[in-house]
Each structure stands twice: as structure tokens, then as C-alpha cells.
Design a protein that fits this description.
Elements lengths: L2 H22 L3 H21 L3 H26 L11 H30 L14 H10 L2 H22 L11
């Protein structure tokens, strides 16, 4: 087996294990940390598929910004055992049934993949430059330069609008008392 296949399977096992950690963790902070690590392993999959830009965006947007937002929300909610809702057996039964159905789908997909490997029906992708940032930049600044500039003007006007709306006038503040 090639080194690339070994790394792929290690990343798959890590991704699935960390995803199970997200679901099974009782502590919401630990669940968010497992989710961050899951995003990092998914980004490693993107790198293996020669999509470096997607990997970096995944890390910056999901593992960075959204997970920080999740952590703030969880900390502000002040979750503890007293405020946790009571468990409903009907909901747990439905979760077990849907999880079992999903497991059967995964087993069927895995079985068809293994039969495809034995039958040599899988075609391997050729190494290309499709996902490279250089090619994305060339297309963005040649073919799509006008929409890119329009989007930048819209973002600039949105930032200026947010500053104007957020700024308080000292004269308009009414003091009650």
C-alpha cells in the first residue's frame, strides 16, 4: 500500500473518531474542541486532494471564527446539570433508529467501494493544478476582475455603514432623571 493511502485511512479514522467525540461528549466545551480538531482533519483531506485554498479557508472560517463564536455562546449560556432538559425516551428511540439507518447506508456504501476496488473499476485521479491558489488568483483577477471589484466596493460601503450606524451622537443621547 502506498504512503498516500495509509495517510488517507489514518485521517479517515481520526475524522470519524473525533466526530464521535463531538457527539458523545457530555461537556459542551469538549464537544467544541473535538469539532475544531475534526475541521483540521477535514482540512488535511483537502490538502491531500490538492485543494490548498479550501483547506486554508476551512481552517480560518470554521476552526477559527465559527468555533470561537460557539465557545462564546456556550460560555454565555452557563450550561450546567441543573438547567439541562429532561431526557425524552421517544426522542432517544428515534435517534437510535435514524442512527442505525445511517449505519446501514454507510455499510452499503463501504461494501460497494470495496467491491469496486477488487474489480479494479476505480479510476485514480491525475495530479492537476486545479485547486492551487495561483490558478484561482489568475482566474479571479483576469476573468472575474469586475465582479471582484464590485464586491470589494460593496464590502467597503457595508463597513462604512456599520460604523455610521454604530456611532452615537452625543447630542441625541437623552439623560433621564
Amino acid at each position: 500500500m502506498e504512503l498516500q493511502h495509509i495517510i488517507f485511512w489514518i485521517l479517515c479514522v481520526l475524522t470519524l473518531g473525533l466526530s464521535v467525540g463531538v457527539i458523545m461528549s457530555r461537556n459542551p466545551i469538549n464537544s467544541v474542541l473535538f469539532l475544531i480538531l475534526t475541521f483540521f482533519t477535514i482540512s488535511a483531506h483537502y490538502v491531500m486532494m490538492n485543494a490548498q485554498f479550501l483547506a486554508i479557508v476551512n481552517i480560518i472560517v470554521y476552526a477559527g471564527a465559527i468555533m470561537v463564536l460557539f465557545l462564546f455562546v456556550i460560555m454565555l449560556m452557563n450550561l450546567n446539570g441543573d438547567t439541562e432538559p429532561q431526557k425524552n425516551t421517544l426522542v432517544q428511540f428515534a435517534a437510535v433508529i435514524s442512527g442505525g439507518a445511517l449505519l446501514l447506508i454507510f455499510i452499503a456504501a463501504f461494501k460497494s467501494t470495496i467491491s469496486g476496488i477488487d474489480g479494479k473499476q476505480i479510476m485514480y485521479a491525475q495530479a492537476t493544478d486545479i485547486g492551487l491558489i495561483k490558478n484561482l488568483g489568475m482566474v479571479l483577477f483576469t476573468d472575474y476582475v469586475f465582479p471582484f471589484e464590485i464586491a470589494s466596493v460593496l464590502f467597503l460601503s457595508a463597513m462604512v455603514g456599520a460604523v455610521v450606524l454604530g456611532k452615537r451622537d452625543k447630542d441625541s443621547v437623552v439623560v433621564e432623571g
